[in-house]
Amino acid sequence: MIDCLSRASAFEQAQELIDEYERNHSPESTMYMALLSGARNAKNVYLSQNIYDRMKNLFPEEKDALISAAVLLANVYASSGEIDKASNIRLEIHKSGTKKKVGLTWITVDGQLYTFRAHDRSHPRSNEIYAEG
Asked: What molecular function terms (GO) are annotated for this protein (predicted)?
C-alpha cells in the first residue's frame, strides 16, 4: 500500500500508514524504500533527501538497503539537474567499497523458467531479443 500511495505521489498518506504501522511494530526499511522510490519518481529532491536521512538513522546496520537508497537519491539529484550532488553520492558509494546488488527477474514461458538480469546476454537468442528493443 505504501508503494501504491507513493507512486500516486500521496506521500502524506503513505507516511501516515508508516506511522500507524510503527505504533505497534519496528520500522521496516522496505516501507521507506517504497516511499523513497515514489519521491524519486516525482523528482522530489527535498523529500528524497529527508527519507534517506531518516533511513540512515533508523537502519544504520542495513548496508544493502542504504546503498540502494543512496542510488535512488543520486538518481533524483541527477534527474533534477543537480549533477554535482549526484556525483558526490556516487563517489561516496564507490569509496565505501560496497556494491549495489544487481536485481534478478524471472519469467515462465511455455513451462520453461528463464532468469535474467539487466543487460543480460546469456540467453541463446539474446541478439534477437535486443534487436526487437
From this structure: RNA binding
